[in-house]
Design goal:
Length: 447
């Protein structure tokens, strides 16, 4: 999903570290309409006839062609392991965003069924995914780089799915970019626990974990998947720029041959040029922008803020994390209330992934965050149905110290999600193919 158009890159030329550190904040932390929201919905693809098997029986090329020809409002792409990703257009109204994705998802479920496949809302596939569907140099290089961290790299690329929520970086008032950045990180561990839907399977390093998907991410290169550390007095945008330049190169694009990188950071390539990468011109802004697409922190600034830490959800419940994050970002009082509830869980990503709501402090924080969102949605005009949906989630799972992953582990089907009254039903059923709608903006590189 593209919230903003990327700045056009100038003609190729030597880029300095000073220029790079100035370009990153103004490009990655733009300010747009404060209520704008976008959704990226990833789903696993299973063979309907043999759901217990790997994806090797799914004919992905015909499925992809059919999906790309469908008159969807958003955009559909494949992830490296064949996961389907639906990316919405940006919306100023959260209910309109939900309605668009619900319609596209219904259409995609019908298309998948016609090709002998089903779309599954689950954060981590417990089966072996035997092949990488995307074979271009980006993903071959990514896989080779991440193989240094053992099985987690291929598990992340081929077996994970998430709900990604895209929010504007600021409402335009002084300091709101810092508020939103801090908010999304502070509530993160509580929401990882509340929406955990990837129980670690036996025989994997994440056996018994509440959120095996987050466990996968935590096992990878922390210099590109962790939070950007802040120095005293440093703003979020400055910290992100420094962290991005100091991240190791995952790949170096070349017109011919492999994209294998040297053991160097992007900053070292900037400073050393062809002494670092002899067979390539020195890096320019296009190389820097591409390098930023190979960084995968919990919250990634891309002109908007992309929240990446939430598991895919069963059925129509994917709408709940979207609503929670949108409410907390849009309503300062709700955001402050949620932040206060999460003071003691800030940074506890590993505990949230391993224990989920079995941890008393995380459980209390998760209830506090969802309560803040419910009250905010109930009080806002036009979102009473959204409040009912979030409240239903809280009552069925969070208030009972459970998450969707617990039901899956116990063999219980998730209940149907109640519809949002002001929008078409947010359901898991197959919807009619929608009428032709305007084309979606270009989807940036996935994963």
């Amino acid at each position: 999903m593209t919230m903003h158009r990327a700045r056009p890159a100038p003609a190729r030329g030597r880029l300095s570290a000073v220029a790079a550190e100035a370009w990153i904040p103004r490009t990655c932390f733009k300010h747009g309409p404060p209520g704008r929201v976008g959704i990226e919905l990833e789903l696993l693809v299973h063979d309907r006839r043999h759901p217990e098997r790997s994806t090797d029986g799914v004919a992905f090329d015909p499925l992809r062609r059919a999906a790309q020809q469908a008159p969807l409002a958003g955009r559909v792409t494949l992830e490296p392991g064949g996961q389907i990703e639906l990316s919405s257009t940006p919306h100023d109204d959260v209910t309109a965003a939900l309605a668009e994705v619900a319609a596209d998802l219904g259409a995609m479920r019908g298309i998948a069924a016609g090709h002998g496949a089903e779309l599954v809302g689950l954060g981590l596939d417990g089966r072996t995914v035997g092949r990488r569907v995307l074979t271009d140099l980006r993903y071959a290089s990514m896989e080779a780089y991440l193989d240094r961290w053992g099985p987690a790299g291929r598990a992340m690329m081929r077996r994970t799915a998430s709900v990604q929520v895209n929010l504007e970086a600021s409402d335009g008032t002084p300091g709101d970019d810092e508020r939103r950045w801090a908010l999304l990180h502070t509530v993160g561990p509580a929401l990882v626990a509340a929406f955990a839907n990837s129980p670690g399977t036996p025989g994997t390093p994440w056996q018994g974990w509440a959120c095996g998907r987050m466990g996968v991410w935590l096992a990878l290169d922390p210099r590109r998947t962790g939070e950007a550390p802040r120095r005293p007095g440093e703003q979020a945008a400055q910290a992100w720029a420094r962290w991005a330049l100091d991240a190791p190169l995952m790949l170096v694009r070349r017109p011919h041959g492999p994209w294998t990188p040297p053991a160097a950071t992007f900053r070292e390539w900037l400073d050393g040029g062809q002494d670092v990468v002899p067979d390539r011109a020195p890096p320019d802004l296009d190389d820097l922008a591409y390098h930023c697409t190979t960084l995968f922190p919990p919250v990634r600034p891309r002109g908007h803020l992309e929240v990446r830490y939430l598991d895919a959800q069963p059925g129509g419940w994917w709408a709940v994390p979207v609503l929670v994050l949108w409410a907390l970002a849009a309503d300062r009082a709700a955001g402050e209330r949620a932040t206060a509830a999460c003071v003691d869980v800030r940074g506890r990503w590993a505990d949230a992934a391993r224990h989920g709501l079995r941890d008393d402090t995380l459980d209390a924080a998760a209830v506090g965050v969802l309560d803040a969102a419910v009250d905010s949605l109930a009080a806002a005009p036009g979102t009473a149905g959204c409040a009912r949906l979030v409240r239903a989630y809280r009552d069925h799972w969070t208030a009972r110290r459970r998450s969707p992953g617990d039901d899956r582990r116990d063999g219980r089907p998730a209940p149907p999600a109640p519809p949002v009254a002001s929008a078409p039903p947010v359901s898991s059923g197959v919807a009619p193919t929608p009428a032709a709608r305007p084309a979606a903006p270009r989807k940036d590189l996935p994963c």
